[in-house]
Task: structure prediction
Amino acid sequence: MTSEADAVSGIAAALAAGKVRDAIEQAEAAADRGVTHPDLAFDRGVAYVRRAHGADSRPGDLGRAAAAFEETLSLRPGDTEAARALELVREEAARRRARAGGTVDVVEGPGLARTAVTVMPEPAWEAMAVVSSLALALAWPARRLPRALRSAYVIAAVAAIALGLSASALAVLRHTRATVEVGVVIDDVARLSSRDPRGAVELPEGARIDVLGRQGAEVRVRWGGREGTLPATAVRVIGRAR
Result:
């Protein structure tokens, strides 16, 4: 058996036997070795959820569970079980935060530009760019034909706008993928430090954030429209943004 298969089967066996601590230790040791697999990440999330509900619960367990389920989805997009588990974990973290007297923050989106370009997947934007380029290339010479003059200009104008939108979207997506990593807040309390006083907020446990860079013991992050720094220990990096 491969190291990956050994890790997956070992963690599953520990969970089946009710050995939550062993499952977590094995999962974290596998992650430290660079072993990645969607089943391994999912079982790690299950283990942290079980510990969060047990007598041995620790602060940040729900955030670590959320990070594990996010990792599952990054490795196996469309996993409905992992998506539902992630939703339930974040809901529970919000309830615990409310019971403790904290504010239940509205989860902020990735910002207007990122939201706009993620309306369609990258291949769709690429196809739009190709079709727009072809339409522009065909319409421009057609303007010399008297009967096609008006139609040619309309098609060329629409194609030029579509080409500009698709090119901009592709630039944002590719820049994001090259420079931004996805992270999850794993501390029960993580205060975002910012030069702008309005940006200094407490991020909810389990929140998905953009990791923009690392500065020693801190990471520079973005959450919605807010940017600042968090201790590196408060964030689990999942991988490059998609």
Notes: The two ends are 31 Å apart (CA to CA).
